[in-house]
Write a structure and sequence with these properties.
This protein is α/β, with parallel strands linked by helices. It has a single domain, classed as 4-Layer Sandwich (Purple Acid Phosphatase, chain A, domain 2), CATH 3.60.21.10. Helix 1 runs parallel beside helix 2. The longest helix has 19 residues. The radius of gyration is 17 Å and the shape is globular.
Length: 259
Amino acid sequence: MRVLCVGDVCAHVGCEAALRIIPALKSEYGIDFTVVNGENSAYGNGITPESADMLFAAGADVITGGNHSFRRKEIYETLDSNPCLLRPDNIKSEYGGGYALCDIGKYSVAVINLSGQVYLEKSGASNAFSAAENLVARAKSDGARFILIDFHAEATSEKRAMGFFLDGKVSAVFGTHTHVQTADEQILPLGTGYITDLGMTGVIDSVLGVKKEIIVNRMKSGGSEKFLQADGKCMLCGCIFELDDTTGLAKSVKRIYRE
């Protein structure tokens, strides 16, 4: 079983990069299942039905979210109607949820979407570790052979702690949100595949997908310019987890960067 996990897709240009690159990666590596973080896929943050449609068309089996999942009201109905469009389960909302169980034939895959709390206090997220414990138990009760966790969090320490907390209990834990790919892909001691952050799918010459001049000015001079999405050549960042069909644990982890 090979799973492709793709980092935060930023704006329409990121969606277009996903449409171009994901099918090629799936073919090259024989990917069986694909998870894409899409909480920034709409222009100006958030996700819309249109940007979600683009990511599903690119090959996503499940789209995960984050602290911007509720930014666009037009997505609320889709969060309710599409069980493969997730948002962090530990952020209280009447719309959608953070758990999907997908039948892939011989096996089933559970995808869990959670938000961190450290430096994300405004998100209103409750304790992610308690939520993870409950949802992993649900996945096992549902008979999921493979369990994948998108932990959308700011602090690397919180992500590392989650990895060790779930080591041996789930197939893979991958972080999203910071938009910078980390070089610590590994199999943890008890067999769970891990990477602190998948990175970003969007414009290379930018600051986290935003025009670099705006961010530089805000940080240097305290400017208040509105964030504008950058344009230009794009990259796709992510990770491929090869999972054991018998144990559900990781056999290999490969970091992915494509332009």
